[in-house]
Amino acid sequence: MDETSPDSNLWSHLWNVLIALVATAAAYYIPLTEVSGFMGTGSASTVEGLLTVLFGLDLAVRLRRSRELPAAKQRGARFGLALDLLAAIPFFLLPGGELLRLLRLLKLYRVGQGMGRLGHLHIVHGTVLRLTFFLYWLALGLHWIACGWIELIGGASPGATQAAYVDAFYWTTSTITTVGYGDIVPVTMGQKVYGIGVMMLGVDIYAYLIGNIASLISSLDPVRARYMEQRERLSAFMQYRALPTPLRRRIQRYFDYVWEERLVSDESEVMQSLPPSLREEVALFLKRDLIKNVPLFDAASDAFVRDVALNLESFVALPGDFVVRIGETGREMFFLSRGEVEVVAGDGTILNTLSDGDFFGEIALFLDQPRTASVRAITACDLYELDKPMFERIVSTYPDVAGTLEAEARLRYGVDIELSED
Length: 422
Ligand code: CMP
Description:
By secondary structure, this protein is α+β, with helices and mostly antiparallel strands.
């Protein structure tokens, strides 16, 4: 973050943007005026005067802001302030201070600082921002190197400034990008040494650019990248463990379903990454529709709905999957958020079909007995499960809900199922 102060108000942001723009313009203008014979000196003093005023004002603003900082941070802010001071001094007034005018470029430190702050705040677009900032510095760098090249080949004749600049920029760009057409070649020793330096720099820049573009592309769709990685890991595992083909196909189908529906395969993992207050809000939001659909919850209090929502675990079942098998010990009951399941008796008869908003698996929990039927998914289903301890807690805390649940079960599954009275 900024060493001087957290820029909280709009004006201070606007001021920072203005200073960044002025510093950038100065970073283009001053090196050009340094190239001998390249620009007239007519407007130079006006521009220099303006820069002195603006940078001086900025120094005053930052000094004031830094005084409000704790002592430890003030020390850190001193470096930036020293650079601000050097950039604000009107060296152009000093005899022979021509070259010292380049110290104005130190103001770019604040531009870099602003970029760092932006990158920190907008972490999601980190790579795009990094590339944009890189292009900014690259353009500035090319300009400076082009200015150096003009100076090296003896400056430009006053009439041919534009052409000389375009030539120099062209040479710089083709050398930095490692294209190197070779139509403009260094001749003197100084030009050759300069050329070597620029070529070395070009290799570094090229590597940085390629690396960043690769990371940009892979970070464009992190969900897809994660899905692909999971799939790869899974196929390696299935191959290594020699899983039977039908099982492999089912696993594959599960992954495809999760991907197509853009679901998160492990919702609880995402939820765990949130602080408790947000987790509760998200859980309530996600399960609101489900809870609204379940007739059982119609008359239930808000406290109950909240309690249930926070204790439901989500999972996916694919067509043909058995969610419950007859005769098994029941450790949880289920709510069907989306999809269709069929209730299958021991002899294979279909007893019933349940759909969105229905629940099942409550009998084993109520009666403490094995499952009375199997439940098989007909379509891909989004389900929520409520485990036995939670079920028991809810039944004892909310007796009216327990009553409705029991009555519902009695109604739905007929008189042949005797429910306990506890
Ligand atoms: P449980 O016995 O725990 O596990 C199987 C579940 O299937 C059972 O609870 C009920 O929720 C459900 N079930 C059993 N019989 C029927 C039926 N005739 N109609 C609808 N659902 C049923």
